[in-house]
Design brief:
The protein has about 130 residues and is α/β, with parallel strands linked by helices. It has a single domain (about 10-125), classed as 2,3-Dihydroxybiphenyl 1,2-Dioxygenase, domain 1. It has helices at about 20-30, 80-90; strands spanning about 10-15, 35-40, 45-50, 50-60, 70-75, 95-100, 110-115, 120-125. The strands form 2 sheets. It has a 4-stranded mixed β-sheet with strand order 1-4-3-2, with helices on one face. Strands 5-8-7-6 form a 4-stranded mixed β-sheet, covered by helices on one side. α1 packs antiparallel against α2 (about 80-90). The radius of gyration is 15 Å and the shape is globular.
């Protein structure tokens, strides 16, 4: 099996309320095994030890937050997708699409989608079998 190359090094969102978004993402990403790996001043980074590839920064005065962005986080299995969805809703996210198979993408694509506090489309996906 070929090693998958990384396409995107990191993603950063500008948020209206850093404390609220930090709380939302900490709860939502925990079922996927991701947590806070760095915090300083007006920003917080999430990932796994040594890899901070998703970050949030407080909007500066007059700066609009990121909205309508789509970010898909990898899940290790379908149960993690389910837990992500439940955690996101419990943390104040809004349901966009409940966990389930998405055969229109490929046979094993299992995902859930939620709206974050700034109306970004956040997804957890387990690719399962592509057969």
């Amino acid at each position: 099996m070929a090693v998958r190359r990384v396409v995107v090094d990191h993603v950063g969102l500008v948020v209206r309320d850093l404390a609220a978004s930090r709380q939302f993402y900490a709860a939502t990403l925990a079922p996927l095994g991701f947590g806070v790996v760095d915090e300083e001043g007006d920003g917080v980074a999430f990932g796994v030890a040594g890899i901070d590839d998703f970050g949030l920064n407080q909007a500066r005065p007059g700066e609009a937050p990121s909205t309508r962005v789509h970010v898909a986080f990898v899940a290790e299995d379908a149960a993690a997708v389910d837990a992500f969805h439940a955690a996101a809703l419990a943390a104040g996210g809004r349901d966009k699409s409940a966990p389930g198979l998405r055969p229109e993408y490929h046979a094993g694509y299992y995902a859930a989608f939620v709206w974050d506090p700034d109306d970004n489309n956040i997804e957890a996906v387990f690719h399962g079998s592509r057969a």
